[in-house]
Amino acid sequence: MDIKKEGLEMKKMFMLSTVALFSLTSFSLAVEAEETSTSISPDSPLYETTREIEEVVYDLTEEVENKVDLQTEYAENRLEEAEEQLEQGDAEQAEELLEEVTEHEQETETVIEETEAAGEDVSALREKLIEKMSLRREKMTALMSRENLPEQAKRGMAKALENQERALTKALAALETSDLEVEDLDDVIDDIDDQEEDMLEAEIAALEAVDESEEALLEEMEEEAEEQQKEAEEKQAEAQKKAAEKQEKAEEKAAEQLKKAEEKQQEALEKAEEQREKAEEKVAEKREKAEAKAEKRGK
């Protein structure tokens, strides 16, 4: 068994060394060919190779934080590549790359959820995810505001922003829920400590009152136990109530953010419709003036 395990470790190390060497060679060639880019252009002959290297490196990565960092890097690369394709006029390729940005973000969330399900604290990872997604959202919004942007690119960008909005809302709600669970756990631990102290004090009191009758002592202990149980139930009910209230606030906050986003989108649509109507009015006005001039000339 030890020999087999050692062989697997050696095989893994060999694969990692091979990937690392191949990555260095490929990226050195890419840098010479494309000095002005931080990622390999989809038009480069090395592009498919670098994408394959990304997959291999990710598959061989075990640390959760490193997996999250890699997916973040890949999402940023796809966004940069999409921007490059837009500048070159390839809206279809840009739309595909924007879809891949969403896929990388979804994979990041999946990794975090699986880690959280295993009982690990993922608050820091989720905060990093939200921060990076927000930065990419700003960049995508700036891209969408460009003049002469093809309609296909606008649709792809709007879809990507919509998917990202849902992902951000989900991540924010999960982060707030996670914080609530940690706070509730601390409250429960404090309650348990308080109960243990109360029970210890009750036992000491019982020992000091050993000269009393056995029946009276038992009655007193039973009353104290009942009282402690009642207090514990009340504290538990109060903790559950607080957790429910905080959860409700978190959901309301997420809903409010979504509502604001929808309102902004509606305002933009209304503004565009208003501008279109004004443009039509100006065209009609110019047409009327032209017809009037033509009529005067005819007379």
Features:
0% strand, 299 residues, mainly alpha
Written overview of the protein:
The chain has one domain (61-298). The protein is mostly helical and 299 residues long. The longest helix is centred in the last third of the chain and has 85 residues, at 214-298. It has 7 helices and no strands. Residues 19-37 and 180-189 have low confidence and may be disordered.
Provide the number of structural domains: 1
**Helix/strand order:** HHHHHHH
Q: Span between N and C termini?
A: 107 Å
What is the alpha-carbon Rg in Å?
32 Å
Question: Which structural class do you get from the secondary structure elements?
Answer: mainly alpha
Largest sheet: none
What is the tally of helical segments? Answer: 7
Q: In terms of per-residue confidence, which ranges show pLDDT below 50 for 5 or more consecutive residues?
A: 19-37, 180-189
List the helices and strands and how they pair.
Blueprint: H1 2-33, H2 47-60, H3 64-87, H4 91-117, H5 123-144, H6 151-208, H7 214-298
Helix pairs in contact: 1-2, 3-4, 3-5, 4-5, 4-6, 5-6, 6-7
How would you summarize what this structure contains?
With 299 residues, the chain is mainly alpha-helical. It is 88% helix and 0% strand.
